Amino acid sequence: MPHRVALREIHHVKSVLDFADHNILIDQTMLDDFRAFSGAMTKLSVNATLICA
User: Fold this and answer.
1) pLDDT recorded at residue 52
2) Is residue 30 exposed (0-12), middle (13-18) or buried (19+ Cβ within 10 Å)?
3) What is the largest CA-CA distance in the chain?
4) How far is C-alpha 32 from the chain's CA centre?
5) What pLDDT is attached to residue 2?
6) Most exposed residue of 9, 28, 35, 53, measured as fewest CB within 10 angstroms of its CB?
7) Per-residue model confidence as pLDDT tens digits over 5-51
8) How far apart are CA 25 and CA 31, in angstroms?
9) Is the alpha carbon torsion for 13, 18, 23, 27 positive or negative?
10) How far is Cα 7 from Cα 1, in angstroms, rounded to an integer?
11) What is the DSSP track for 1-53?
């Protein structure tokens, strides 16, 4: 049973790191590649209750 708990913890850490990597990639793309569209872009957030552009 302890192995299952450890595997779940490893999976959780991997998921958090994957999310952080995706978030960094999105930020870099918004700042570098699509700089000309900065006024028209919106980044969605899990905590957002209202989307404003």
Assistant:
1) 56
2) middle
3) 53
4) 17
5) 60
6) 53
7) 676 777 777 777 777 787 788 888 888 888 888 888 887 777 766 65
8) 10
9) positive
10) 10
11) -HHHHHHHHHHHHHHHHHHHHHHHHHHHIIIIITGGGTTT-----TT-SS---
Tokens 């994957």 found at? 18
One-letter amino acid at 28 equals Q
Tell me which amino acid residue 42 is: T
19 and 6 Cβ atoms separated by less than 8 Å: no
Q: What pLDDT, on the 0 to 100 scale, is given for residue 21?
A: 80
- Whole-number Å distance between alpha carbons of 40 and 16: 28
What distance in Å separates the CA atoms of residue 39 and residue 50, rounded to the nearest whole number? 17
